[in-house]
């Protein structure tokens, strides 16, 4: 007898989360390897651009399989891409916001101590949960909120690195740094939840949405290449420093990006955050075995907190992976944020 539809859906969600976690962990380890062993480092901005191009072609290929024929594929692209400039503009929002987030994160890192940056940047986890509640009209229990903040603390400890003394004095502006980190945190939460809302608010194919977003992503990343490393790229070439290992890292990033969109479509951004945290723990453990990194007390405690938070968040609860209808006007904000 076939399993109930709900069980199949649950198994599919678990499969997507597991694959995303494993791909993200493998990507992190492979990236660490290329950045520590390659003598001629490639340009990171060009790698991001190529990743967007690969994700676009993979999405077109999956959409072709979904539609079943070349004619229907061309019709779908003509209707949803060429003939829908408003939809393209709508899906360009996450790409632009993510670009702002990355630049603000870099500005914050330049004006804050590394330890302060590590702690404050993890506020993107509860910020994502807050955006999920406010933008998608969902509710989280007290235990779920507790697990979200526990995850935030766990990830901070896992990535914690003691401050190191340096002879180089860098002039920093803490106020500018905190302002930049606040913008980066808000952008991270908003962009992810916005994309989730677009995915779940219509019956448009996930792969069509991906194509729409990756087209704008390619444009944004090309602008990023020109602004940050344009002179070096023109001098040394777009593919300077590329090896087979770099190609493997880019491929992993592309596959991980596709699975991320699947996870957002069929679960939510909060679960994506838990999956990303698990990937950080797994990649660090793998780095211990492959690169001889030392396990610290802070990492052990942080990994324990991450595991406990995942367990607590996964306890039986109301389904939060679907957009709920708007609540009545008499419902208070407190009741919306915390439902017991």
Automatic annotation (TrEMBL):
The chain crosses the membrane at residues 12-30, 42-64, 143-160, 175-195, 207-227, 239-262, 274-291, 297-315. Pfam families: Nuc_sug_transp (PF04142). One of its GO terms (cellular component) is Golgi membrane. It is a multi-pass membrane protein. One of its GO terms (molecular function) is pyrimidine nucleotide-sugar transmembrane transporter activity. The keyword Transcription regulation does not apply. It is found in: Golgi apparatus membrane. Keywords: Membrane, Sugar transport, Transmembrane, Transmembrane helix, Transport. PANTHER family: NUCLEOTIDE-SUGAR TRANSMEMBRANE TRANSPORTER. Belongs to the nucleotide-sugar transporter family. SLC35A subfamily. This is Solute carrier family 35 member A1. It comes from Pelusios castaneus. The lineage of its organism: Eukaryota, Metazoa, Chordata, Craniata, Vertebrata.
């Amino acid at each position: 007898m076939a399993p109930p539809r709900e069980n199949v859906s649950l198994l599919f969600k678990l499969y997507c989360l597991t694959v995303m976690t494993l791909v993200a962990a493998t990507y992190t380890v492979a990236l660490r390897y290329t950045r520590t062993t390659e003598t001629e480092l490639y340009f990171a901005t060009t790698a991001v651009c190529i990743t967007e191009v690969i994700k676009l072609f993979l999405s077109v290929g999956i959409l072709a399989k979904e539609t079943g024929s070349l004619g229907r594929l061309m019709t779908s692209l003509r209707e949803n891409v060429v003939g829908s400039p408003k939809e393209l503009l709508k899906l360009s929002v996450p790409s632009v916001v993510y670009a702002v987030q990355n630049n603000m994160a870099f500005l914050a890192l330049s004006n804050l101590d590394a330890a302060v940056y590590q702690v404050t940047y993890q506020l993107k986890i509860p910020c994502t949960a807050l955006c999920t509640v406010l933008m998608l009209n969902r509710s989280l229990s007290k235990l779920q909120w507790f697990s979200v903040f526990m995850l935030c603390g766990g990830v901070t400890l896992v990535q914690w690195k003691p401050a190191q003394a340096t002879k180089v004095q860098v002039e920093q502006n803490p106020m500018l740094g905190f302002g930049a980190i606040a913008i980066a945190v808000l952008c991270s939460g908003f962009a992810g939840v916005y994309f989730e809302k677009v995915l779940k608010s219509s019956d448009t194919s996930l792969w069509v949405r991906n194509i729409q977003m990756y087209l704008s992503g390619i444009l944004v990343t090309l602008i990023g290449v020109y602004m940050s490393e344009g002179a070096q790229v023109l001098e040394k070439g777009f593919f300077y420093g590329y090896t087979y290992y770099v190609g493997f890292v880019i491929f992993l990033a592309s596959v991980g990006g596709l699975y991320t969109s699947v996870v957002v479509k069929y679960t939510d951004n909060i679960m994506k955050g838990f999956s990303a945290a698990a990937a950080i723990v797994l990649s660090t453990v793998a780095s211990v075995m492959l690169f001889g990194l030392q396990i610290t007390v802070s990492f052990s405690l942080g990994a324990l907190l991450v595991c406990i938070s995942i367990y607590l968040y996964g306890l039986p609860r109301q389904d939060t992976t679907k957009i709920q209808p708007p609540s009545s006007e008499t419902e208070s904000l407190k009741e919306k944020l915390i439902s017991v």
